[in-house]
Each structure stands twice: as C-alpha cells, then as structure tokens.
Amino acid sequence: MAALEGIPDEVCTEVSFFCDYWQRLKGEAFLPSCATLDPLDFFVYLSRVFIAEGRTVDDLRIRLAGTTYRELYGFEITAKRIAELIPFEKRQDLLSSYARCLEEKKPVYEVSTMTWRERGSEVTYERILLPFGSAEQGVERILGFAQFYDSDGRKLFS
Questions:
Q1: What is the pTM of this model?
Q2: What are phi and psi of 132, to 5 degrees?
Q3: How big is the CA angle at 56 (ends 67 and 101), to the nearest 5 degrees?
Q4: What is the chain's pLDDT, residue by residue, as a tens digit (158 residues)?
Q5: Hey, is 22 helix, strand or coil?
Q6: CATH says 13-156 is which class?
Q7: According to the model, what pLDDT value does residue 49 have?
Q8: Which of 81, 90, 107 is nearest to 3 (CA)?
Q9: Range list of H helices, 13-157
Q10: Distance CA 88, CA 10 (A)
Q11: Rounded CA gap, 42 and 37, in Å?
Q12: pLDDT on residue 120
C-alpha cells in the first residue's frame, strides 16, 4: 500500500501492518468507520493494542486494552481516561499525540519512552494512533498499537 503521510518507511513490521489495515478499511472514505474496527482482524497483536473512545482528549477513555498495558501500568487500564494514565510531568507531550490524531483526523506515529512501573525501568516504544469515525462526526475512536523495546533495542512482548 501507499505510505501514510507522516509515517516513516522504516517502521517495524507490526506498525506497518496496522497502517495497511487502516488504509484498507478507509478506502476512499474520509475516515474508516468505527463499525469496521474488529479486534479479530488483529488478534495476533491484541496484547499490545488499545482502543480509546471519545471526541476530545479530556473525554478519551480506554474501551479495550491488551494485557501488556496491565503489566506496564501495574493495573487494569480499561475504562480509565487517557489523562489518568499519563504522569503529570509528561502529560502535555503525550496528550498532544492524541490531540493531533483527533484534530487532524490522521494517523500519528511516534517513538518515545515510558517507565515500566513494575520494574521502574524505562522502555522505548514505537506507537501508531489510528483515527476511526466519519466526515460528519469526526474521530470517535482511536486504535493504538505499540511495539516495546528493551534497552538493547530488542522487541518485548512479541
């Protein structure tokens, strides 16, 4: 498939899969419909997937979260607001990715780090946020996937 704007060519295989998935569902539409989003389409990656629902950053809640996120955060994150999950000192930077996805109605890719609470160590992640909704309603859900890496650059949770 054609490359998505703002997504580098050298993303990991899993992020590439989700970009292709989103483009396939979108087709000629403004955004792929929420009705087309089916977790069974990517069950192999479910442990590292989340779906957030809401129309503003303050409203975004986790509707579905893979088991990897429970390990990383140390608690179940389903039904939590995104803003509750991000430490205050990093909130503006991290929330801006969700805000961009909502406002620009385009996928947002980033590479960053987070603290693995259980171990207290930082892990690097490569993440894609993919908007779902309609031209009339705008973004209603965000499908997110993250590939995590250890300090030596090896994939975690593969």
A1: 0.91
A2: -130, 145
A3: 70
A4: 446 888 888 899 999 999 999 999 999 999 999 999 999 999 999 999 999 999 998 899 999 999 998 888 888 999 999 888 876 565 566 688 999 999 999 999 999 887 766 566 788 999 999 999 999 999 999 999 999 998 889 998 87
A5: helix
A6: alpha beta
A7: 97
A8: 107
A9: 13-26, 67-73, 82-85, 91-104
A10: 31
A11: 10
A12: 65
Residue with tokens 């009705």: 35
Token pair in block for residue 22:
């989103």
3-state secondary structure 38-78: CHHHHHHHHHHEEEEECCCCCCCEEEEECHHHHHHHCCCCC
Q: Would you say how long the chain is, in residues?
A: 158
Q: Is there a contact between 145 and 127 (Cβ–Cβ < 8 Å)?
A: yes
- Distance, CA of 26 to CA of 120 (rounded, Å): 39
Token pair listed for 23: 């483009």
User: Which tokens hold the place of 104?
Assistant: 């620009």
Query: Quick one: residue 11, left, alpha or beta (phi over 0 = left, psi -120 to 50 = alpha)?
Result: beta
- Here the tokens at position 152 are 């030596």
